[in-house]
Automatic annotation (TrEMBL):
The lineage of its organism: Bacteria, Pseudomonadati, Pseudomonadota, Gammaproteobacteria, Oceanospirillales. The keyword Glycosyltransferase does not apply. SUPFAM superfamilies: NagB/RpiA/CoA transferase-like (SSF100950). Pfam families: CoA_trans. It comes from the Bacteria. Gene3D superfamilies: Glutaconate Coenzyme A-transferase. This is CoA transferase subunit A. It comes from Billgrantia campisalis. InterPro entries: 3-oxoacid_CoA-transf_A, CoA_trans_fam_I, NagB/RpiA_transferase-like. One of its GO terms (molecular function) is transferase activity. Coiled coil: none annotated. Keywords: Transferase.
Length: 233
């Protein structure tokens, strides 16, 4: 990686510098648009006491779920438990600290963190356990709670295409949390299906400008379905 060229050629290089005790922001929703190979590299490195910020924690044996197997995550901010039995078990047994956060609030926490906004007011959660202990303000007759922004030591992101300058395009619903996560890391690492030359991406189609991206790597992906359902014949 040199100058504007953000490419790295191994996952070891992509996640260089991650250490135990760090905070990792991960894009993805369920198993859609998750940086599965970057997660696998975190598992391989064996770092522990991680705080993870992500919509959910993958499934048993895949995605962020693999980091639960050796208890590498000590705390997670997420909007739901999902299809992960191990995540549920560890949460109910107080083996992991889970801060359940409304989905829109979680997305805005990432976006605000990336924009340099320290906190914001939202009506979501007022009058519920989510709002307990948080500052309350009234605007135009409606109550709002103060939510603090979030940033991470690392942000790990899954894109569709990128150029070597780090400009990223996401595909359809795989966009989900990835654009917000990409802005909120001190070091942002993006894995994509294809890397092209600068100028090959239509500028109006770029979702994450390269200014936010520190490292980019091309990988191959399994693309699992989180929960398969079929109609009766």
């Amino acid at each position: 990686m040199a100058g504007f060229d953000k490419r790295v050629y191994s996952y070891e290089e992509a996640m260089a510098g991650i250490e135990s005790g760090m905070t990792v922001i991960a894009g993805g929703f369920g198993l859609c648009g998750i940086p599965e190979n970057l997660i696998a590299e975190i598992k391989r490195r064996g770092v522990t006491d991680l705080t993870v910020i992500s919509n959910n924690c993958g499934v048993d044996g895949f995605g962020l779920g693999v980091l639960l197997e050796d208890r590498q995550i000590c705390k997670i901010y997420a909007s739901y438990v999902g299809e992960n039995a191990l995540f549920e078990k560890q949460m109910l047994n107080d083996e992991i600290e889970v801060v359940l956060t409304p989905q829109g609030t979680l997305a805005e926490k990432m976006r605000a963190g990336g924009a340099g906004i320290p906190a914001f007011y939202t009506a979501t959660g007022y009058g519920t356990p989510i709002g307990e202990g948080k500052e309350v303000r009234e605007f135009n007759g409606r109550h709002y709670i103060l939510e603090e922004a979030m940033t991470g030591d690392f942000a790990i992101v899954k894109g569709w295409k990128a150029d070597r300058y780090g400009n990223v395009v996401y595909r359809h619903t795989a966009q989900n949390f990835n654009p917000m996560a990409a802005t909120a890391g001190k070091i942002t690492v993006v894995e994509v299906e294809e890397i092209v030359e600068p100028g090959e991406l239509e500028p109006s189609q770029i979702h994450t400008p390269g200014i936010y991206v520190d490292r980019i790597i091309q990988g191959s992906f399994e693309k699992r379905i989180e929960k398969r359902t079929v109609r009766e014949g």
